[in-house]
Amino acid sequence: MEWWKVNAHTYFLVRKEYIQKLCLYFGGMLIFYGSMHPWFLWPISRFYIPLACMPILFSLVLSRTMDKSIYCNKDYIAPTIAVFLLVIYQCLASQKNFNGWLTSFMSIVIFYALFQIKKQEMLKLIEFITKSLACFLALSLPFYFFYLLGFNLPNSSIVYGDYEYSFSNYYFFLIDDRFWTEIIPRFHSVFLEPGHLGTACALLLLTQCGKWKKWYCLILMLSIFLSFSLTGYIMLVVITFLNMWIQRKHILVKIIVVLFIVGCFIGGAFIYNHGNNLVHDLILLRMEIDDGELVGDNRVSESFEADFENLLNSPSIIFGKELDLSIYENEGNSGFRVFLYENGIVGTFLLILFYYCTLRRGIDKRAIIAAIMAATMEFIALAYPLWFCHFIPIFITANVLDFTHSTEQNKNENCLCTK
Where are the domains of the chain? Predict the structure, then answer.
């Protein structure tokens, strides 16, 4: 009888641990993909955070009944306070309604749970997300190639928001109606924009430091290339060197090789089809300098830039100002200027405090610096620091990656270590 009791108790503990992880992984995958805006989540785009919060909260509550929990990181108070201050300030600045406040509080709960996950489990979580995204892209890419070859695939028309975006939906991938006449339309799978896919893939590659020869990393790199996203390309190049630098590799020869490959790539883009191709039009032309300004700096429209200049010279710059997108006639605006416009100097200070509190706990100083550089690039180009598809990889890079051990260990593909 005693033997049965002991084994039944042990079995119950194992089952609770399994349920705890299952809820965390499901919720983590939902918040990551939800922030990339896939078309099948558009009908519930305002509710994916509450939906993801429920399993994560259940996992967190269940952990309080267990002796060995995956939520055992004790340094979570300062990061939680920092994200609380930033989120509440943004709610006040944007004058959110009740639903907005509720969603914001649930996002704080998700951050609170993430800050408590032990480091070994963070690595498993991000690897799970990376592989799951790669598996989906591995399914999406063949259909995209079939489309390029001229196959007549089933599709339907679909729009996002108030007709802000219009797509031909091939179910496994989207074709932006603005680019359907291109020989090679930009690939962004089922996600809203090529930049969303390119940036998320690049940041995931940063967390897979030392594993870039794995099949799932190769799929992410191919997806970045086919996205024709300038932000994705720049982040991939920078993260490539950060990846080698974190691992303490001799990178001089590798820099020369990479520069040679990039040079060939650029030269081919100018020659192929007399320069009439997506790489030349969407990447290279945007990197030209005209009158001291970058031609491709189109993160904001001219009308917004004029408003932004006026804001800089007014007292509103301290606390920011609500952005009325309707006055810009559906012109796209993103990047650090939009964040500063909406949140002001105070909000920007709270963001810096948030990054300091969340990226300071790592062991490997190079990994922390790499995470800060990635966060800076993301902020300049996109300024969505609380999007989970951006924050989770940056957070894990700073707090979990550790290549401070011997050179021999660094040569091992599985040398990601935690202490």
Answer: 1-70+97-117
